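User: Predict the structure for this protein chain, please.
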Amino acid sequence: MTRVLLVPTPNFNLPEALRQAAALDCEDFDEDALGINHDPEGCVSVGSEGPAGLAKSEKGDAPPDTAQSPKNQRRAAKRRHEKAQQSRQIRREAVLKHLPQHPLLTSAVEYVQLPAARCGYQAVNERKRCSGRRYTVEGLRSEGFTEIKWDGVTSQVVAEEKTGKVMVVMAGQPDDPTYRECQLRVAEKVLKVGEAAEFTAKELDHKRASGSAALNHGVFHGVGTSGPVNLSNGKRTRLLEDLVKDPDLCRMASFADASFKAWSPEVYEEIENKLDRLYDHDPSLSPPFQCCVLPCAAFNFGPQVCCKGHRDQSNLPYSWCAVTALGCFDPEQGGHLVIEELMIFVQLPAGATVLFPSALLTHGNTPVSQGEVRLSFTAFCPGGLLRWVDNDFQTQDDLRKRVGKWAFEERMEAKETRWQKGLAKICTLQQLVGRYTPKEGGAGSP
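Assistant: Here is the predicted structure, written as structure tokens:
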């Protein structure tokens, strides 16, 4: 085994460097700027107003007890799901405060031009478009890419020029020193997990990144699986199970969840409803966070993650992944999020979250400077999970055998319009404003 070197020099004290770099005095801050309160153990409790109206997040529940009877497993799963739904609430007035009046940038590129499969569950595999390109700030500038300067807090969007549909959401982060401290603690914990994982040299250099191993954790169904599974990472599984229970990481996952729900409410609702049906059908499935609807998480362990250009083609194409940068680096000099089709590279400060359709858009990031630390964690939804639910919890081949010829053909015809129906659920800024603006005499959450 090759042990990963996580510090640039023998005397480099990463935790102390991270704390000094933050230069924060947060002893007087007990509440997020957007209203999430924290108890001494780091749990999140209901405040007057959470990020994007978020109400609550949990430390992370234990996986279902497989020794339970199926009936008791279903009851336990129902309780977990009801608890999770209660924790994933947003408030209209909070969302409205963060909606910009206009897109920061509009793009001539349209969703209909991007490589979604007609079935709507995944993207088309176009290997030539994803050649593992490495990015540099100088190279992108010379090619005419637009650099988006961003503070990592103020919400901004990139939208289609023709339809106004939102394509990229720079959701940001709570403007709260305690959240920045939270981010630093998460970065330190992710680094420690990376060190304990003892990645091999082959695992550190792979088709999507150089010098940085990555692991996925959560519920998945796609290439290589015959049905939904809890991803296993061998001896490292326990490390990831402990990591996703961390209250600081759960707080950040809660913000990503609230942002997704606020900016794409119709897609969020479809994913939530179908995954609830999946978990009721198979209580053994255990998503990484009860506080986040997205059922799978990816961790890039760095310490200087630099992802090559790629698309995540198995992700649901009309859904967005939530990418959160971690670490201590200068976002003006490196660590930018690059999106090739839109010809943009976005300054992505540590702690900030960005949402975009990772199945459709080729993306990666620029390198950070020597001695800096950049990691990331991403929440996403594999499209195969929704396909499984729509096929009555079976593969398409099994569905063909169990239903009549005409019924199966009707199902296949419906698949031809799934991408268009999914695309119709992606909102414009105007639709979001209309959704969250209280109607006369109305009240409550959306």
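The CA atoms of residues 315 and 382 lie 4 Å apart.
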